[in-house]
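> run fold Nipsnap homolog 3
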Amino acid sequence: MLKLSRYLRPAAVLLRPPAATVQPQECLFTGPQQETRTFYEFRTYCIRPDQNAAFLKLTNEKIHLRTAYSELIGYWSVEYGGLNQVFHIWKYDSYSQRAKVRTALAQDPSWMSEYISKALPMLTSQDNEVTYLVPWSLLQKPPQEGGVYELVSFQMRPGGPAVWGSAFQAATTSHDAPGYGKLLGAFHSEFGLLNRVHTLWWYESADQRAEVRHKAHTDARVVAAVRNSVNYLESQRNQLMFPCPFSPIK
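> ok
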């Protein structure tokens, strides 16, 4: 009779993977967990060049039909980094709330006839992205009305915040803390291109932005933080924007 003892092992032994395949637990996580359901939808519309003024005028007159359903954070016209474009941010408490808003809008005859039917022919494309504020950032208001806004979008290497989150935070706060611009919010993508983060900045003017950026480039602390973050960077895009008259953030 065969002795079964040589074939039987305690369950814990059978289930234990080889030592070489055991991974540290922290490698299974992509970063701090999202603590709130609130998210921000980024929308970018490209407008037919000959319809840019007409689209902004129409939106100025009819945006109240849209803001009756959900909160508009800001609405900007892109000046540098994209021609004939508008960028806007909408806040939602949950995906179910957004779904209800979209359903209600589609059934609103005033919104559909007075705005959508007129606005859509003026556009060449629409794009949206779902984002969350990163755990260490709050949505801020500019210190005063007026000024210009910069949206900086970073495409980071795959792996998530566990790989590049600390470096990104250090590079961003190294500009914000000493006043090289006013950070209004830092966001990471949930739907759209993944491993993408955005920072929204406020400056008194385009010239003031150029001045403080020049100073930042001579700050050794900033330079070191940026150099470290660049190790995880695949691409970057900057857009300078002006708030529209109807934007809550001006």
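The CA atoms of residues 78 and 241 lie 4 Å apart.
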